[in-house]
Design brief:
Blueprint (H helix, E strand, L loop, with lengths): L2 E5 L2 E4 L30 E4 L12 H17 L3 H15 L2 H9 L3 H8 L11 H8 L4 E5 L4 H10 L8 E3 L12 H11 L6 E5 L6 H6 L2 E5 L4 H4 L14 E3 L2 H7 L3
Helix pairs in contact: 1-2, 2-3, 5-10
The structure holds magnesium ion.
The site of magnesium ion (MG) has 7 residues, from loops.
């Protein structure tokens, strides 16, 4: 499967309902355009947080990554370059650096999460187009993040979107077993009590969409163009195979869909 049509800010992939051009749909009405991607079956909206609800190039997640490496160096006593290598191997093998540190090294989750999320969020600001696009989505909306609730709440506050979500499902919600592990998705489906085929999931890491799609969710890949976005832990497949839709512009995509 490949990309069928590359459009302005949005790409339709060869799976799911037939889609036509979305390049003319930005700012559509409550129902979106009649020609936009069809999300009329969706009543539960699951959004990853970092690099999904804010742009990957704003520098926020880069700070978190730096502090992850700092934490691994502090915790293990390794030089920073070796700590970076260890961090990446923990991420690949355990889904998150934290899960690897907890499993192999007995790290304290609260200490880690407080440290890595102690960052400067001044680069974030409310995005009126994103707020309007999310506000029009019918049904329930959730944040589904491998990060922690406090961090998510701070981010949502900075982008003016806190009031748009019913709940934040964070790493504690799924007992520190992170995306892309299927058990994380099973947990949130049980928590929310919804049918997966009525849900849509948005994530910048393509591999995080695998379990969502296997469960029957409609999947949207926020492709930031980075290796990180294409990869993710245990990445081996072509990203497109896990995504029903692809975009590099979340507000535009959400404004274009049929709901
Ligand atoms: Mg993300």
């Amino acid at each position: 499967m490949g990309v069928n049509a590359v459009l302005q800010g949005a790409t339709a992939l060869g799976h799911g309902p037939a889609m036509n051009s979305v390049s003319t749909l930005a700012g559509g009405g409550d129902g979106g355009s009649q020609a936009g991607p069809d999300f009329r079956h969706v009543r539960v909206w699951l959004f990853d947080l970092d690099n999904t609800l804010y742009r990957a190039d704003c520098g926020v997640f880069a700070q978190i990554e730096t502090r992850m490496t700092d934490y691994v160096a502090r915790f293990t006593g390794l030089p920073r370059d070796e700590a970076r290598i260890l961090q990446k191997s923990l991420y690949r093998a355990h889904g998150t650096t934290l899960n690897g540190l907890m499993t192999l090294h007995g790290a304290d989750a609260d200490d880690y999460l407080a440290y890595v999320h102690d960052i400067d969020l001044s680069g974030l600001a409310p995005d009126a187009k994103l707020i309007a696009a999310i506000a029009r989505l019918p049904g329930r909306r959730y944040v589904f993040t491998n990060g922690c609730r406090d961090h998510a709440a701070r981010i949502l506050d900075k982008i003016g979107a806190g009031h748009l979500f019913d709940s934040i499902w964070d790493i504690r919600t799924f007992d520190f077993i992170p995306k892309p592990d299927r058990r994380a998705y099973d947990r949130i489906v049980a928590e929310g009590g919804f049918a997966p085929d009525q849900a849509a999931m948005f994530d910048d890491i393509a591999h995080n969409l695998v379990a969502a799609r296997a469960l029957g969710m409609t999947t949207v890949w926020l492709n930031s163009g980075s290796a990180f976005s294409h990869g993710g832990p245990q990445a081996a497949d072509a990203p497109h195979e896990h995504a029903d839709h692809e975009t590099d512009d979340l507000p535009q995509f959400l404004s274009s869909i049929r709901i």
